[in-house]
Every structure is written in C-alpha cells, then in structure tokens.
Amino acid sequence: MTPPEEPPRRATGHDVAGRAGVSQSTVSLVLAGKAAGRVSPAIQRRVLEAAAELRSRPDASARALRSGRSRAVGLFVPDVTNPFLGRTLRGAQAAARRAGYDVALVEPGDDRDDQARSMESLRAGAVDGLLLFVVEPPAEALAGLAPVVLIEAERPGVPSVALEVARGADALLDHLTELGHRRIAYLGAALDVATFRRRGERWSDHLDGLGVPTAERRRAAAPFTLDGGRTTAHGLLTNGPGPRPTAVFCDDDLLAAGARLAAADLGLDVPGDVSIAGFAGTILSESSVPALTTVLAPAEDLGATAMAKLLALIEGRPVEERTRLPVELAVRGSTAPPAGSGPPGGRPSRGRRR
Q: What pTM value is reported for the model?
C-alpha cells in the first residue's frame, strides 16, 4: 500500500533567502513591509519573486510593491478607552472600508517622545497615510511621512478636521450665564492641543466679559480619565479664591462625569448646589444622574470626514486645509440657576432641552 503523500513543506524565510541570494534579515524586512529606504527596489522584487516561486504566504507588502499602495492607514490616538474616540474611530473605519482600506490603530499616549517614536516606526511600515487624533507632533516628526490629517488638532500647513469648539463653548457658557451663574469654574484636560486650548480661551474670554476678576477664577487641568476628573474637581470645588463655584464647565463629558462624582463625595447636590456641564455628547452625558448638559459633537462624522480628506490626499486630489463641523448645545438636568438666585432672566439658552 502506497503511503499517502505528505503535504509540501511551507517555505521558510531561510528558503526564500537562499533562493533570492540575500540574508534572512533582508527577507524579513521585505515581507514585513519595512524595506522602504533600506532595501533597493530590485532586491525587493527578487525577494518577492522568490517567495512566490516557493509558494510563501502572499502578504500586503507584495501587493503594496506591485500597486504602490498598501491600502491601509494608521490612526493615532492618545487613549483608546475614551468614549468619544470610539465613535470617531467607527466613523473613520466605515469610510475606510467603503474605499477598500484597512485602519491600524496606534496608541502612543500623550507623550511627545512616544508619539515621535511610533511615527518613526510607521515611517518604514506599509501605510498610505495617517490620521492623528488630538495629537500635535513637532514638525520634524511629520517630515517624510505619508499624507497626514489631524483630527481636533492643528499644525500650519497640515490638513485638519475639527469641531466648531469655540461656538459650542460660547453656547454652553451663555447658557450658564443666562441661568445666573458668574462663579463658573473650568475643569480642563491636561492635554496641550488646540481643541482644549480653545475651550479654555473661550471660558477666560467669557469671564472677562462678565467682569470677573482673574484672582477670583478657579481653573484646573485634569488627567483625561474619570478618576482624574473626580480628583481634580474635588480640589476645584474645595480650594481656591473666593466662594465655591456655582457651576463647572468641563472640557469633556468624561471629566464632567468625574466632577459629578466629586460633587457627590462632597455632599453637594447637582444642580441644586453646583451645576456641571460637559462637552462631546457621549453616552456618559446621558447615563449620568442627572443627565449632563453638554455640547453634542458629531463624532462619527468627524472620523468619516477626516478619513475622506486623507483618502483624497492619498489619491493626489486637493483638499481644504481646515474643515469645521457644527456642534449643538443640549440642555439637561445637571444645570439650573444658582441657589437663592430666583428664576433666570435674559434671553433663552441657544440649545435644545432634553
């Protein structure tokens, strides 16, 4: 009885290296898509041909060499756990899939050195472009990279997509003022990027307009986590010049949820003792008790618009440098007139009540 034939042995990197007459490290670079600038095009072709002859696994790097594109883009984010980011990523991925692209998620954190190292790694990898979410790398880190689009960040000469943050902040601060608040504290995110800088600037300008002395204002920067918001808001509500704030304007719903917990820790009623407002319109704003007054931001549209702009750049089509998406104020149960102020006066708030 003739024994069954054994299946052919899968070709290894050693086999491919022998057939192509190169080192195994060269084979590894080519098949991993990291040969650009390190291995000549002629040797790359030789390695890929040898791999094909030996029936080695077809991979994206071979397709990229033939087409000039990997049909993959990288998305840089500082924190994958943020609820707003998840919706932004969903919008970006949906737009990418429709165009036949994959999205690789990279989380270098908010440390600039870590971001630069991650970008350097992708520089040699097989991606056609990069989306950077709330990341503002130094100009030298962007030099030589594939096309880049910034989301909720800015760099001169780099295309970006962002929310109409100033209008959203103004609408929210007007709402608090119309309720009768003047002692409005600011709980900011400890991330030095344009979107959060602009929120802080609008808060400062608004209090200037109210004539609130700088010495009487309370502001603090919190780590971008629920616990970070809770701990920082605790200090904001208990320490500082003048009487306790009657309202807290937060950079994000995540920080606002932390501020809500801090108020509970201190035995403060929301909104009876202190009004709390967020920004983003995430599930955190709806699940909080009471529901948070917030600025509704179209996260999925943000991701999809940024991806569409990046794909246009990859295809060599011109794009607008700056794109801004509208936001809307949602007035909910976490804001009310300050205690003892009576009914609010002035014009109605520019937002819808939910």
A: 0.75
